[in-house]
Amino acid sequence: MFKNNLRIAFRTLFTNKVYGLLNILGLALSMTCGLLIFILIKYHLSFDNFHHNPDRIYQFVTEQHRENISYTSSVPPGFANAFREDFGASGTVAQAATYTDVLVTYDQKKFIEEEGTVFTEPAYFDIFNFPLLSGTNMLAEPNTALITTSLAKKYFGNEDPINKVIKIENKLDARVTGILKDLPANTDQPAGIFVSWKSIKGFDMFLGKDDNWNGITTVLKTYVRLQPGVSPENLEKQFPKYREKRKGSKNVHEYHLLPLKERHFDERYTGVMEKSSLWILAFTGLFLIVAACLNFINLSTAQALRRSKEVGIRKALGSFRVQLFWQFIIETGIIVVMATLIAIALSALLLPNVNALASVKLNLKDAFDLKLLAFTIGMILIVTFFAGSYPGLILSGFRPVMALKGKVSMQQVGNFNIRRSLIVTQFMITFILIIGMFVITRQMQYTRQKDLGFNKDAVLMVPMGADSLDANVTSLKNELMRQAGVRSVSFCFEAPSSYSNWNTNFRLLGDAEDEPFTVDVRSADEQYIPTFGLQLIAGRNIFPDSLGRECIVNEIMMHKLNMQSPQELLGKQVRFNGENQATIVGVVKNFHMHSLHDDIGPVLITPFPKFYQNLAIKLNMGQMNTTIPAIEKLWTARFPDKLYTYQFFDKQIADFYEGEEASLQMVRIFSIIAIFIGCLGLYGLISFMVMQKTKEIGIRKVLGSSVGEILWIFGKEFAVLILLAFCLAAPMAWWMMNKWLEDFKFHVELGPWMFAGAIILTVVVAGLTVSFQSVKAALMNPVRSLRME
Predict the structure, then answer these.
(1) Quick check: helix, strand or coil at residue 621?
(2) Which parts pass through the membrane (predicted)?
(3) Out of 97-101, 347-351, 529-533, 687-691, least confident range
């Protein structure tokens, strides 16, 4: 019986090729999205769950109370030892300082390790599960290192890496004592090199002071694995006493325990994926699959009248209703399985694109596992029964006598109002996606076109590394200035807008206490302002030999200090970063220090040569092709022990919005798929209407109706449905996109053209979909239409 049903199902499918193709395409696209979204959600939910007892691992974080509350994923360097002294029995504590883009040298070969070089304590490997494959000495001695398998192969080839010595940033020799298994992709602490914490004093003076409570750097992370039964809530109640360690500051710092399982989803502490985003992704995938199923139902029931005689003959020959029901379920199952096979192939093909869009590291081996297999099988079964049950019940329920006489009415194959409701729902979500696409696109254009307060074009950023300003670098600057394609050169800590912060306390000289706000220090020389095109609105530039005795501030500083004009700031002496003092000699126009997500805060620009980490080179646009190789040649000659790298400043700015650009691409894809599936639903609805109104169309044509008048019968139907969907979707889209824009301190305003564009685009595409069936019905011979009676 099953074999016979299978043969009939294939025959029916090939007889109605258009019907089968539309259903397979709709289901395949929606199931592809469902599979990829499931893979993506599964990946994000798996972060750092491979450690032993991850529910007992926490990260110490800081909630900073100034004028506003801010958050950082670190604590002061002195926190770890204080916790060990006070609560050592509560858990195991380890510090980890992670540095990116570190220069590693071995046997005159140089490498830049982008992901992470971590200085940490032996206890770190008691907290986290990073298996040691060979070697011993888990960083118990100074100047020792552990490296991963892939880096061992990269540095040493087939040589035995144990006891080999690598040089880090040309100032620390580290002996390799062990090889770790490569870290999995689903961790928020990727690294390839782990160096003994006892070596940190020679690498970073700030972190080398174990009792330092005078600042926080996001380089440092401090973790604890609590003992069984220890309550993190009760432990947190003891932390307020650590506030007293920060003497002389009006700012209140609250320390908290962040569960490891929540870190990936908490954007306050560098989390990369909010759980609400996962819910939105899951809902989008569910909507696309359900919409495709509903379209399948619409198209199937639209074909019902054509198959009514088939059902009548089968029933007359003795078939039971349950047999006919399973016949239609098998037909649906064949379509679903074919769609699933296409979806699996498309998912594998599109996985690299998903990696690029979502900034993840999925691979086929890890993505396609037992969980995905279970999800796929479950999806096949649910879609088959959901999409096939209703048409199966309708078709198998025809009375044989009425079916053979062709007396089956359209009312017997489904409620028309239900179909309209489904179409409205589909297009509501389509409108929300399209409006979202327009808003995100406009905001991205705004970020590229807005005046940021500086010139970001044709500026080359060359990393020098910390503590690298010497006679060679100064001499290099002079040589660069003699190049025809170089306009100016500046030493600086960072560019005007960057991820790196140097926030510190601030007060006017003579005041007893610090101001309630912090200032962002931009350590730079006198060429900083002309190189980046900052605009002086009062005073002058700093002198080349001022060396921290002079500074320039921005307009916001004037407002923070309740002054009426920039001139009032000139000549004021300030104290910052502990005991540093400088005189304000100039005021610059406000510029964006970070992305447009953040407000503009107080800035202080002053020359601190020991903190210069970058060389900023302003180039002539027309001579870049020859100037960039010349710069590399000069650099390599001066610093043969360093690796020359660079990045254009405007690329750094673009990287601020990498996540938004990825969101835009995903919304565009989902919008196209939603439009396609929505149009499939319209096609099914119009097909149903054509079957329902065949006799009416014939009568109207006999009575003299034109083709245009008949087309309007169908046109007004879809126009009303789309307009209703738009009216319902517009307020929801407005609210959702307003919430999204709230994440930007500087953003576009929602305009009517965004909503008008969505409805125009949808009407055009939907109109083309409807016109195919409606024109075909309008041009049908009325004699043929009336004979259907």
Answers:
(1) helix
(2) 21-41, 278-299, 324-352, 372-401, 422-440, 669-690, 710-734, 754-779
(3) 687-691
